[in-house]
């Protein structure tokens, strides 16, 4: 499984297109969402992902307040980047194609 950041190619001055986001979400197997900085855009994107029924993995640094998500009990909290990596390896395993 490779990491894919579909919107990295966009220029910051380009208009946001919800249809583009939906199309790119449709290419994903699972979405990993880090809620650590409590950015409203992350919650918007999480809502889009959950709205189309895509599997999600939620992570956040310990101490992060989790807002408005039906999956708040499934957030994998981490203390360090090493712990985040270990969590992701374990959580992504069921989604990988052998």
List the helices and strands and how they pair.
Layout: H1 18-25, E1 30-34, H2 40-51, E2 55-61, E3 76-78, H3 81-92
Parallel strand pairs: 1-2, 2-3
Describe the model.
The chain is of the alpha/beta class. The chain contains three helices and three strands; from the N terminus they run H-E-H-E-E-H. The protein has a three-stranded parallel β-sheet, sandwiched between helices. The mean pLDDT is 81.
Descriptive terms for the model:
three-stranded parallel beta sheet; 98 residues; 3 strands; globular; alpha/beta; 33% helix
What's a concise summary of this model?
By secondary structure, the chain is α/β, with parallel strands linked by helices. It has three helices and three strands, in the order αβαββα. The model has no long low-confidence stretch (mean pLDDT 81).
Mean pLDDT, as a whole number? Answer: 81
In N-to-C order, the SSE pattern is HEHEEH
Q: Helical segment tally?
A: 3
What best-fitting shape do the alpha-carbon axes yield?
A: globular
Q: What percent strand? A: 15-25%
Weakly predicted, low-confidence segments: none
Taking the alpha carbons of the first and last residues, their distance comes to 9 Å
Q: What would you call the structural class? A: alpha/beta
Radius of gyration over all CA atoms, rounded: 14 Å
Major β-sheet profile: 3 strands, parallel
> Going across the major beta sheet, what is the strand order?
1-2-3
